[in-house]
Amino acid sequence: MQISEIQLEQVRNQIRRVKNCGNPYYEKKFSGINPEDIVDQQSFQKLPFSTKQELRDAYPLGLAAVPEEQIVRIHSSSGTTGTPVIIPYTQKDVDDWSLMFARCYEMAGITKRDRIQITPGYGLWTAGIGFQLGCERLGAMAVPLGPGNTEKQLQMMRDLKSTVLCATSSYALLLAEQIENRGLKESINLKKGVIGSERWGDKMRARIRDILGIELYDIYGLTECYGPGIGISCSEDNGIHYFDDYVYMEILDPQTGLPVKDGEVGEITLTTLVKEGAPLFRFRTHDLAAFIPGKCKCGSSFPRITPILGRSDDMVKVKGNIIFPSTIEDVIKSVPGTSSEYRAVIEHVDGKDELELSVEVEGGTDRTEAALTLALNFKSKYNMTPKVRIVGEGELPRSEKKTRRIEDRRFE
Fold it and tell me: In which pathway does it act (predicted)?
């Protein structure tokens, strides 16, 4: 996606500002770089990348590009894989984020007459409070329950007649199955679901949609870049629109760092155009997607990417094969009777790697045939045969947060 002259000027303004903000992180990063030399796509692509490790190394407030008195809030990544990343926000950053999030709701056809049940987590994480900010900016009624407590979720969903569910795909599935198992479908008023924070496949999407009978929208974002709400799918359900007046997106080859062709999968790399507290420049997200060329039938002028296909750091190599969650999901959806849920465990046994794949199937499915077909299809596509374990729907663990579907135990 070519950078526009307006976006180039916004990038130049950001670099001018951070070079003079007195922060050693930015001074070092842009030492010797003259913002006036950034005049086209080629000169922009010479700017250095930003990485997650750089942001971790700046802990706790080394990313602040404004005086402390202008910081009104901080948010943080989880820190589960190392030192957390602390992102400071100015009031303008918070306002811009709420505006983008309200746009997301509007693109999903949500209005101020809706009642939005918010189940993602609150606190340092950007999720819950982002969903609430956008809801309040839109003027809808927020039902801010946060994560967990499924009994309370179901009670409030019925008593307050929630029309929109905001959740991770894992928790949306858990709630859907509880509603189905308890026969509550006729007593709820849900019309739409806004789902984010983890990749979810077509099978899972179809199962949630079919149980609840609702429209589903895929929201995108990350803590380092405002949070969820920088993009969302539309009623056409053909990709995610992202707000290019706030972020410039590149999709690059993860190995070379060079742009891929439109339609090819690569790593999303983000530059914030007006963010004040902690601006990002060519931040390598590790999220994998592809640009969708052309204008969407929904009429929106915002550009599109495919749904997130995985993460470059989620990749595992087994017997010379590169495996992503999407790799496994592609095989599963080719087998009749399989459900959306699976778990893959990779172990090193007797000197060789083994992949055990546990897959749920619908009632009435011939389990022996399903297991054989899964193994054969996997062998045909990836020249490797997993050990397949077939279980019934609901037998694999459910999560109120994100679900870890691939577990690599070879290096434990």
Answer: Aromatic compound metabolism; phenylacetate degradation
